[in-house]
Amino acid sequence: MDYDGSASRARMLRKVLAATAVVMTPTWAVASVQRPTPSTLLEFTPAPYQIRVLLSEATGTHEVRGYDLRWNLPLKADRSTRWDVRCTPWAVTVREAGTATWRQTRGAVTVSSPAGFVFLDGHPVREELRVGPGPHGCRVSNRLDLEKYLEGLVNAEFSSKWSPEAVASQIVAARSYALYEILAAKRSGRDFDVRSTILDQVYGGARAEDAAAARAVRRTRGWVLVERHHPRQPIKAFYHSSCGGTTELPERVWGGPYAGYGRHRVSCPYCAGAPKAHWQFALSELQLIEAVRRGSISDGREPGWPADWYRRAASYRLERIWTEAWKGSPRVREVHFSWAHPGGLAQGRMDLALPATRLRHWLGQDRLLSTLFQVARGRDGRWGFEGRGNGHGVGLCQYGAKRMGELGMNHRKILAHYYPDATLAKMW
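RESULT FIELD:
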């Protein structure tokens, strides 16, 4: 809608908004935040932070198109243009689509449009696109306002159609995680803040935005989870799909410590109805050993494993797999494999231990959904895995938060449940 019409149309619009607008204010902020006037709802005030989202490190040629593109290169700016971009480890080359002339630069190139969007391989990207040389092709990132970034995250990480309180809690957690990474990247000199994948937060870009997501982000604007004793320091607010009944401490997944989580795991009876609350799958011995072999080649074999472990595993008989849980937790800490020589125990055996988080990575996080599992040999000779929950189990349980919101709990209570040693602060 065009809001630049006549004065009479503007007055009429203000009357309509004054009669119909419903403004949602965070429950923890009623006393300190003034209710916006209808006119302010039509405006977007940038956050004091911009975020750099790493979109791709893929090989090949990217297509960049948009209206009146503005490059940091001396290129002709047509009202509607399409450009091809490709990279080597040392340079970026661009050309107007359909032409044969490539222009090369050793530094990164940036491109934006007064329309506010640039299209990367057909997908709309807000504000500024940056393309730089990378080890495997182009290193493509998107620089945009932090609050707008959150609008494109809502429907990629969960759903704007969930209860407003659950959505609000997820947005505050995502904003906290993003701000933590922005500040960490500044300290380390990293050339991006977050990845657009499950390695950080899944970002769907402008195509994932909708009006409900925008309202939810605006409702919680500037609210961040911070360390209880350091009110200007955001916590790294991890979250996951479903915890399977209990969360896990971050130091047991990534090492630590991380502020905001307290010293104890959190009980969560709310995610029992999650889509992947219970799961199972089975692998043959050959499939299992091959997955471990590929993982050890990619990441390096575990300390203490013999150099010829795979040769022995391929020729020995896998007799037993058992798990060792963390103290006071049902989640698996280590997985133990025991092979015996086909000629009998007198001929030798091999016992290997592997962290459960690494096994999950090697088997595939879309298959071994969590470290809350058991493993046993089935009657068909295959090894069956059965478990609960989906994700690393740290921080906010998304389906748990969804159910808590449906039960009438507000986002302040949801966040306090999953981040018991954090507090909320209005940062902007």
